[in-house]
Design goal:
The protein is 42% helix and 17% strand. It is of the alpha/beta class and 357 residues long. It folds into three domains: 40 residues, no CATH class; 143 residues, 3-Layer(aba) Sandwich (Rossmann fold), CATH 3.40.50.2300; 134 residues, Response regulator (Rossmann fold, 3-Layer(aba) Sandwich), CATH 3.40.50.2300. The protein has a six-stranded parallel beta sheet, with helices on both faces. It is elongated, with a radius of gyration of 23 Å. Helix 1 crosses helix 3.
Amino acid sequence: MTADNKDHIPTIHDVAKAAGVARATVDRVIYKRGGVKESTIRKVNEVIERLGYTANPNASRLASRKKLTIACLIPQFEEGDYWSVAYKGFLDGAKTINTYDVKTDIHLFNPDSIESFRAECDSIIASHPAGVITNVVFADAVKEFAERLDEARIPYAFVDQKIEGLNYTVYFGADPSEAGRLGAYLLTHRFEVEDIAMIRLIRDSQKMADPNRIRRMGFIDYIHEHHPDCRIHTIFIPPHDQDETYRTLEAFFKEHPEVKFITMANSRIHLIADYLRKNPVSDRHVVGFDDLEKNIEALNEGLVEYLVTRHIPMQSYYTISHLASYLISGKAPQKKDNLMHMDILHRLNSKHYDFKV
């Protein structure tokens, strides 16, 4: 194959095959990520030049001033949910890139249905956008989607969470494991804790969605390291049935009145606020995550002691602006993995925290 063969646009797979190396090696050479021998770098660069491969498949479209589209694939949401806040960050980011002939196309999937996620993936692939932003609700399906994007030579970015080992262009989000460990520290560092109630959400019927697994595992790992004799009780509640949530919590704490330490690894600690309000316990300690408005209300009311959070809309804003910059310039972002700083909110400092867009 040569650069003169106009019937085929060379791909990263073509380069890897011709150079006799793995695709990940080519990726490391292109973006100068290190860990590759000089002789291999020379070989890969020679093949790139011979085939006429470019890491930016949008160069010709930009030269002709055709409008580029970034497809954002995120879960469906209601106002006040985590993804409604993230969505506002996408909108703000879209305003900044609109003048560069880049537009945003939002695709929403049902977070309780892997079929819905895959259907939106099909729709995105069919529209062949310039770039894609996605998240990690269904990890295995995301890996499949990433392979299809690679084959189609569509650059993609992760927001909120990522999957290691994939060929994404850029990522913005907090370190979920560190966030979980920080939450565990805040809940337990002043006490010798024997029992913790970990509240989880009932998600899709196939149990394929587990977006908070890494944060939860970070929390559990910290507890095992620092409180090895502590028991963690897992209680599942429905996300959209407050009456059932109340009954579930009432039954658990009636059976386990000794459990005074409570957490939720997801962003919806406010779902248990009604139970906490109607069943006050003086020495109860509750730690949640993410600065949603309803969580802030529970914090200010004293129902939640701490929230571990980050500026949610800025993750979306930075992700879309950095991916757009890559699509326009063809230059890889200076940093592939961009970790947002984490904040600790207490009712004494929450009033001055800017958690809105």
